[in-house]
Amino acid sequence: MNKKERLNRIIARGKFSDHCHVIAGKATIERSDAGVFVNCEDGQAVMKHLLESKWIDGVEQWTQEHADIPIQGDLIRHGDVLLKKVSEGKYKYIQQTEYDPFDDIIRQVMD
Asked: What pLDDT, in 10s, does the model give residues 50-79?
């Protein structure tokens, strides 16, 4: 897998540390105005919690924070990352949001 494909497989990044949530296995990632979608080809894809700098260099170094999660079922939660099934083998990444009552805004949550 080349560097561009490894970057594309990152679904979410950590806000303060060098970790990311990565889709591994037989899957493709689609990014569009409608969102980020994971297409699982054979039901064997998993979400991993890896060190981003190592992943980009081609090394799967586990952060030891979240175990690998199979992408199966209707909802997949991996820490603060959520995938929701939209059709057979297809999942949408749901960006979590939070309300800040002091600034009176809704903003996206970073993992």
From this structure: 999 999 999 999 988 888 999 999 999 988
In the numeric block, the tokens 């998993």 are attached to 46
Q: Kindly give, in sequence order, each residue whose CB lies less than 8 Å from that of residue 19, ignoring residues fewer than 6 positions away.
A: 13, 49, 50, 51, 52, 63, 65, 111
> CA Rg, the chain, in Å?
14
Q: In Å, how far are 1, 104, 105, 106, 111 from 101, measured between CA atoms?
A: 44, 5, 7, 9, 20
Distance separating alpha carbons of residues 5 and 108, to the nearest angstrom: 25
How many domains does one find in the chain? Answer: 1
Alpha carbon distance, N-terminus to C-terminus of the chain = 25
Domain span holding position 59: 3-108
Q: What is the pTM of this model?
A: 0.83
Q: How confident is the prediction for the chain on average, in pLDDT?
A: 88
Q: How far is residue 49's CA from residue 78's CA, in Å, rounded to a whole number?
A: 8
